[in-house]
Amino acid sequence: MKIHADHQPYRKKPYAARWYEGKGQRNKFFASEAARDEFIAQFKQTAQRADPAFPTIEPHKLIRWHQAMAIAPEADPVEVFKF
User: Fold this and answer.
1) Which of 3, 10, 62, 69 is deepest in the core (most CB within 10 A)?
2) DSSP per-residue codes, 28-69
3) Are 15 and 7 in contact (CB under 8 A)?
4) CA-based angle 13:15:17, to the nearest 5?
5) Residue 37, Cβ neighbours under 10 Å: how many?
6) For the segment 42-82, what is each residue's pLDDT rounded down to a tens digit?
7) Rg (Cα) of the chain, in Å, rounded?
8) Separation CA 44–CA 51 (nearest Å)
9) Helix (H) or strand (E) segment spanning residue 79
10) Inter-residue contact 35 to 16 (CB < 8 Å)
11) Separation between Cα atoms, residue 70 and residue 49, nearest integer Å
12) Under a CB-based contact definition with an 8 Å cutoff, are residues 18 and 26 in contact?
């Protein structure tokens, strides 16, 4: 994932970091150039560790999944959902 720095002097927080998630552009604005550069560095480190192709699961859904498996371990979740 590419992220790049931008500067818009007319804004209250003129230093921006821009990247794309899916088809949409994301922006984050900063008051100082140092804060923006620190965010970009951390963003790049995180992007290298995380695989964007790997689906994410919200923690509450994972907990519910474990609870359902404890109740009926032999049940197929797809079949239950279709029912």
Assistant:
1) 3
2) EEESSHHHHHHHHHHHHHHHHHS-TTSPP--HHHHHHHHHHH
3) yes
4) 120
5) 14
6) 988 887 776 666 667 777 877 888 888 888 888 887 777 77
7) 20
8) 12
9) helix 77-82
10) no
11) 32
12) yes
